[in-house]
Amino acid sequence: MKSAAKKASASGTPAKATAKKASASSAPAKATARKPTPATPTPAKKSAPAKKAAPAAVTPAKPTPAKATSPKAASAKATPAKAASAKAAPAKAASAKATPSKAAPTKITPAKPPRNESHTALVRRARRINRELGEVYPYAHPELDFENPFQLVVATVLSAQTTDLRVNQTTPALFGKYPTPEDLAAANPEEVEEILRPTGFFRAKTKSVIGLSKALRDDFGGEVPGRLEDLVKLPGVGRKTAFVVLGNAFGRPGITVDTHFQRLVRRWQWTDQTEPDKIEAAIGGLFPKSEWTMLSHHVIFHGRRICHARKPACGACPIAPLCPAYGEGETDPEKAQKLLKYEKGGFPGQRLNPPQSYLDAGGIPAPPLGAPAPGAVVPGASAPGAPAPASAGPAPGSPAREAG
Predict the structure, then answer these.
(1) Helices within 237-341 (DSSP H only)
(2) Of the ranges 39-43, 65-69, 286-290, which is most confident?
(3) By the 8 A CB rule, do 170 and 196 touch?
(4) CA nearest 258: which of 272, 288, 238?
(5) Residue 200 C-alpha from the chain's centroid
(6) Which residues participate in catalysis according to the annotation?
(7) CA distance 185 to 210
(8) Residue from 328, 335, 349 nearest 145 by CA
(9) Would you say the pTM of this structure is higher than 0.85?
(10) Residues 336-367 pLDDT 10s
(11) Pairwise CA distance, residues 63 & 41, whole Å
(12) Residue 47: its H or E element
């Protein structure tokens, strides 16, 4: 019996050794693996984690149980996949970094005002735009040639429905023949009409300038009054004309609400009013009274040179980042540059005798009536110095062209 027991114990020794080896090759050893438990249940509990870890390993079609139960082998086989993902991560990061540079906008993105913009915010925005315009046009001035208040009020009346340039080209002949209100009041209407013909609507304008000259002679002693209520009583003189005269001949602040001014203040969302009187009141509440005259010059200068009615030169506009209407016109810088007018485009201005500050800033004086502008190319005209075609008709603006 003793010998049989010894044989049994001797035969059981390899079984325990294999159990210990199996526990060592499986997941990290636990304290329960050292307890003298039967060999059959112990591998069943430890084989469960090995079966869960098997799918993570990349194994051939024929499964190998011994290798599948080894977590070290599974982690070793999974390592290349992690390395591949780690290598792919920098590539994704590089592509993510490269994306903003490709999608970076080249155009200006203006800061649009909020829908419910407060009055204080509107005042700040409007004044900032005016300051920027003041830096762009430090030489801004009235673009009508005049030497005294009488010439200015007459020239302003004549500027209706035409350009200041055409008025400046016409008034030298008018004031050369009728230098005072008394002279113009006694003038022959037909002779005045012939002089004013290039300005358009010359019959109505003749009645206005002769009528206001008579009023100045009879009611104000031949002098232009310096009060708004007196100026608007003159024939052909409204609030716009009155403020031009007050601001530029008498130094009294006024807002000139012409077509350029109306268009731009609505584009900038300073007001949504459409009537000149209401626009004047709305804009006047945004600025100190002392800035009204220069504000008018800044806005009108910008409207004539860059912010045109039909095709604004948005791509060449110096205040584009502040403009809520950016994009209504040409945004390409090169194409927008070709839309600039007057000194901004390298062309003559509107005054034959502009102020010295304008000339110092690079402005070019306008040519007299009938003379070609320096460097200007008239559509359909021959090259400079070449004889005109025999069939050529009257030039635009000539009395023969604008008759009737």
Answers:
(1) 239-249, 259-267, 276-284, 292-305, 333-337
(2) 286-290
(3) yes
(4) 238
(5) 35
(6) 240, 258
(7) 5
(8) 349
(9) no
(10) 999 999 999 999 999 999 999 999 999 999 99
(11) 23
(12) helix 41-53
